[in-house]
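Summary for the funding panel

The consortium committed to producing paired sequence-structure records for every protein in the target list. Below we show the first two records in order, beginning with the earlier of the two.
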Amino acid sequence: MPTPDNTNAPDNNGFFGNYGGQEIPLELKQVMDEIADAYQEIKNDEDFKQELAELQRNYVGRPSPIYFCRRLTEHLGGAEIYLKREDLNHTGAHKINHCLGEALLAKKMGKTKILAETGAGQHGVALSAACALVGIECEIHMGAVDIAKQAPNVTRMKIMGAKVISVERGTKTLKDAVDSAFEEYLSDPKNFFYAIGSVVGPHPFPQMVRDFQQIVGIEAREQFQNQTGSLPDTLVACVGGGSNAIGLFTAFLNDEQVEMIGVEPAGLGLDTDDHAATLTLGSPGVIHGMRCYLLQDEQGEPLPVYSIASGLDYPGVGPQHSYLKDIDRVQYHSATDQECLDAFITLSRSEGIIPALESAHAVAYAIRMAPKMAGKKILINLSGRGDKDIDFVAEKLHL
């Protein structure tokens, strides 16, 4: 079992094992180092910690509860299924956890505008809310395909004052939105702050976003023991970039008896080109300032990827996830679009809880495995609610 030092923290150069770092132009390194220094300063500042804790409690509504899915458990037989209800957070997902931290940091650094990409729109909505809260300009880049698919979230961003940029290049989805936002950031990195939406990008972002998200696992570990008298046997979370998963997993990394499962989008099937199963089928490479597992061509360029869940269609993945795969601490599996849709409906109709399509991938894995795990307890990170997806799903399933 690896020690806490090499599972929980990157080295001084931002590497988790062979993954991470700062694969960026030299002129950007100074800016990233300034962010890293500012983050290290504020993360131990009592005033900052108290301000963030108060907002988590009174603005976000933390702690989010643990819920036992009684009817779903009875329907499936086998393992007991529990949900960590991040869908109940203000703005509807786990994204608000790191957006508040990043917005506060940017404000304290004197930045004039916060930039970000978004896929499903949950990061964009959360960041729009955080920027409105602290009083700083917000600009969100979003692929044209995702804008059409996630219209309610686009409207929410605009209502809260964010400028939404439609990205028309490439596949017009998440990877292209990242490229677009990063180009705008490069136009004035001294005054702009790029609030990366997952545990990806150059150091310090994989660590910083992870640290803001680890409240999910810290709460869950205590809550689950208080509620059931034991730790969960298995943790399950969807993985695109990987922020909700690493947020849950971090507090349990040294509990050897707790199995951890990350669930990637298999899309139309792993035997097709229409998936985004990076850790399952990818290889080490470089994207967006970091080294990680990557779906790439022979020249090392990122491949087009696909998922029914806009927040998961990314060809890379967080460097800490890449490392945890290599040391076999976390197992990574996948779920297809059809399994995701089936899980979306099953959870909605058995428990009255509509999950985000992203989160439904994790639910799908639990539904698949629970009948084989009698006497065990599965904890799913329900990372977001499905309000944003209901029109798309209703049309897809002819409801």
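The next record, for a separate protein in the list, is shown here:
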Amino acid sequence: MNSLFLKYFLIYSLVIVFSFVVLGGAYVAQVNRYAVEDKENTLEQTASRAAQSTSSFLETAAQLESIIPGSSDPYKRSYLINMMQLADISGGMIFVCDLDGRIMYIANSDGCYAQDSGVLPQAAVNAVLEKGRYAEMGTFYGYLSEAHFVVGVPFTASASSGGSEENVGVLFVTVAADRSINFFFEVVSTFFFMVVVVLLLTLTVTYLVVRSTVKPLNQMAAAARSYARGDFSPRVPLPRAKRRDELYDVILSFNNMADSVANIESMRRGLIANVSHDLRTPMTTIAGFIDGILDGTIKPDKRDYYLNIVSEEIKRLSRLANSMLEVSRLESGEKSLNKTTFDICEVVRRIIIGFEQKLTEKNIEVVLDMPETLNISGDHDGLFQAVYNLIDNAVKFTPQGGKVAVYLAEKNGKMQCNVQNTGSEIAPENIKYIFDRFYKEDKSRGINKTGSGLGLYIVKTVINRHGGDIYAKSGDGKTEFCFSIPTN
């Protein structure tokens, strides 16, 4: 059973069926108990009335006969009519017997008749005399051919001396159980019919719910198999907007993960292409010039000139390797933050002094808007590299006679640093990509030949590790990078 849908459907179905079986059994037992108790109570009331009538008849008849023989006949007819009516109301038969079980009268809807023969089960008589009541649904110890409800009670008469009451006989009321049984089966059959209907509806709903739950999982599995083959285009459709449940969150997270993986794959391919380009170009240059020197194509008087170019290309390869190593260390966490307290203004001044030659060659105006000192707590080398990369980019892309401005201040417990330069602007659609690895706005890589495309990525990583933020803006002939980090 490898199907999750089949597992869930069978489990839910078994739980539902079991619940209905338990509920149905409890309901049937309750209906049966109520029907039996109700019938027994009705018969017991009839038996009590018949017992009272019999006791009254026996006492009154005995008194009348002792005074005037034969004067009890009218009263006896009244008693027989009353017993017939009680039997008719109960829908069964009434047996009147003495303490030995010998039948005295039998009453049904047709009449009440005196009996000279017939004996009722002594066990039933004894049960009435011992417990004061007898009730069962059965064949009355085999006396009756079919199942009946039977209720027995004693009847009394005054003793000849003292006037106390004593049991003189037992009265049984019997009613055929076929009506109650038929009624019971009708109720049960109706109930089970409704149970089957409700069960089918419930199983149908369960099937739909389980399918709707498992379907996205199957879609995610299919999408994952596509990702394993290298196709990152499939996405799992989100459920209805109103259904913001756990499954919705899982699907949303899965699609976001797919987007991230697709972006990572795109970046990986771009990384390979960019690294290949950045490695191939200087290596081609180096190989070409060295071959030219070795085969004599390059004259001896030009060797120093081309060897200087080879040296620059080797330095370029070294910078690329160092940048990639730095990125690897930052991403892996191998390079931890070594926080110390230092003056960030002094760091900026040292960096500007290091660019003095380039600034002079391009006649670039430098504007420093910062306090004399601003002490912060952070990784000195990491922040030095971040600020250095920003100023290096500013100097690199500032045209002849342009301007570079550095703003530094403390605001609300944070150090704010802005590096601005004049010159060509960054296209608005490219702003969001400039902090990506190996990204260069110049796709041909013809303008910025010395950059590796990793400088701004390193800056962003260092700033983020210090708990800060960085962003860029470009317009009106100016480009500005702004970042802030906590001073402590």
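Regarding this second record: The CA atoms of residues 83 and 372 lie 124 Å apart. The chain has three domains: 4-184, 240-335, 338-486.
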